[in-house]
Amino acid sequence: MESTSQIAERNLIAQRQDDDDDEIDLLKLWQTIWYRKWGIISLVMVVTMVAILAVLAITPIYRAAATLLIEQKGAKVVSIEQVYGLDGAGSEYLQTQFELLKSRALAERVVRQLNLTTHPEFDPRQQPEPLIDIRGLLATLDFRKVVPATLPGDLEDPQALTEAEIFDQVTRDFMERVTVAPQGKSQLVQVQVEMADANTAAIAANALANGFIESQLEATMEMSMTATNWMNSRLGELRTKLKDSEDRLQAFREAENLVDVDGVATISAAELSLTGDRMIDARRQRAEAESQYRQVQAMRNGGWERLATIPAVLGHPLIQQFKAEQAKAQAKVEELSKRYGPRHPSMTAAQSDLSAASASLRGQVEQIVAGIERNYQLAIANENSLQASFNANKSQIQDISRKEFQLRELQREVDGNRALYDTFMTRLKETAATSDLESANARVVDPATVPTEPVKPKKALIVAIAALLALFAGVGLTLLLEALNNTFKSTEEVENRLNIPVLGILPQVKKANERGELARMFNSDKDKSFSESIRTIRTGVVLSGIDYPHKVMVITSSIPGEGKSTVSANLAFALGQMERVLLIDADLRRPTLAKSFQFPVGTPGLANLIAGTAKLEECIQRVDGIDMICAGTVPPNPLELLSSPRFAKAVDVLKSKYDRVIIDSPPTQAVSDAVVLSTFADSLLYVVKSASTHIPLVEKGVGQLLQNNAPVKGVVLNQVDIKKAKRYGYSYGGYYDYYGYSNAKPA
């Protein structure tokens, strides 16, 4: 059982291991690339040769360029920019000229001028036969039901094309070879043509430049003539239209007797404005009177006392005075009532004064209420009178405005027709005076010359890019294969990933060796490096149990074929030189010990011993100084036998008779026998085949053993190709360099 400190230490080391895994080992990557350098170089050379052959087979393309100067403002043949749609300024103008240089109309002009439909580079009837006859290949595969009889595009039969189709195809091909390249922020532009024929390319570039200038002149003359004819026809229409508009204006003035519309409209507007202001005041006064009237109507049913509480009544000065006199008389009555009776003369006089004051107050309230009602009626009458006056003025102004609008509309029509007529007359005279003057907005600065060097393909650049891509691909493939090789290749990897010490490594031996020869390699001593490796493992086993000797030792692996049986046998022979050793084949499913040492068929073994069908002396075989117990008769229930008390008792008996008991266990990932056997062991060795067994399998197997408290003491890295490992940068040192591997037999 591990203590808490050991578990904490194991977790800390595992955490450090994970941190180390996140780091990129540049030296290791370089060593991996260096080991595969010849393969990478070969790939680069092959790709480079293919690229060289490919670029040599490509037809060189020449580029001829003619330089044009496009002026933003040329001489105006006809001074009506609206006809042209150009103002001669701004980047939009230059962009328009560039697009005209690439137009189809200009390309068709050059194709006709140079008769490119018969040129071998453009004429589809003179195209060479393709290297691969796709039509014949499709016919051979009998794709008649899938592929149409007439294939589109380049697969069409050139003889079946009409003249119009040939011309269209040549024009599109020529347009794809034309490039317009502005020169910085200047007004210069290069017209470039790329062709395999350098002479034709120069001629075509000059033809494009001259054709552009000629097309501009032709367009100018054509538009000038069109503008002249159009203006002549329009001038008569405008003259008639102007005369009709003048007649309508004069007839309207006479019919309406209009002299000064503006003066009348101004007076009417002033009166309307004054009436509007007075009507606003009347509406305000009517609203105030209506508010007071509504209050009076609401309080009328409650008597004159409630009417006296209306704010308009209550706020009247006379009401305030009468209210004061009433209050004074009421106070006097209340004072006398305390001293006299109701019939006392003083009391009677005071009551008379109070009644007189109340009557006066009531009369005044009724007068004020009547005044409020009269004011309301007068306010309504005043508002209605002003509204009628306002409507009358408004109707008069609207009538004047309608006449004014009609008059101004007729006047505008006359002015517009007269201005348009004058403009057309002026422009017609200008056009007639300058119709025979030719001017172009572009001129050739540098005509195209015959190019001497092709512009493409850039052979050196293509070859260099191909070689560089091949180099990257080779390096990437090498690193990918190395990343996919998820196996243990060094002792450092084993110790870092498993946190278990490596007791030793075993060099790779020839695969053709027989099983019996492999099991006796230590005794035969034919391979010095192998023998020294076994001694190293033996030393590690002895020293690891110097205080508490490991009498029972289990040797297992992850999967079959990793060499655990070979390690068990050779380690047993090595320990047998110093101790009494017993080797037990506990792999009851796939036993190998009897075959390796050629025991007779039917030799009793471990299964017979546990089952009680044979005695211990009958099961033990003496071979080269050590005792062995083979698997015996293969049972149907091996796991039950190994878990039985009889097996535990047999192990106790064997521990008392031998210094060392080595048990060859089945692999951990095949069956769970190794976990059961580990419960009887003092130590367990785990065999890992170098560069073969996947790391997750090993981690899973070791993890299962550790979870069941198995005493895993070390790992043996088997089948290590020392020379290959050194090329990868892994160093094992020690006696390997001393012996120099002169006797080693690498696979």
Question: What does the model show?
Answer:
With 747 residues, this protein is of the alpha/beta class. It has 4 domains: 1-28; 62-121 and 162-229 and 441-446, Bacterial polysaccharide co-polymerase-like, CATH 3.30.1890; 261-434, Helix Hairpins; 491-739, 3-Layer(aba) Sandwich (Rossmann fold). It contains 29 helices and 12 strands. The strands form 2 sheets. It has an 8-stranded mixed beta sheet, sandwiched between helices. Helix 27 (695-707) links the parallel strand 11 and strand 12 (712-720). Helix 3 (37-57) runs antiparallel to helix 15 (459-484) and helix 6 crosses helix 9 (198-256). The longest helix has 90 residues, at 345-434.
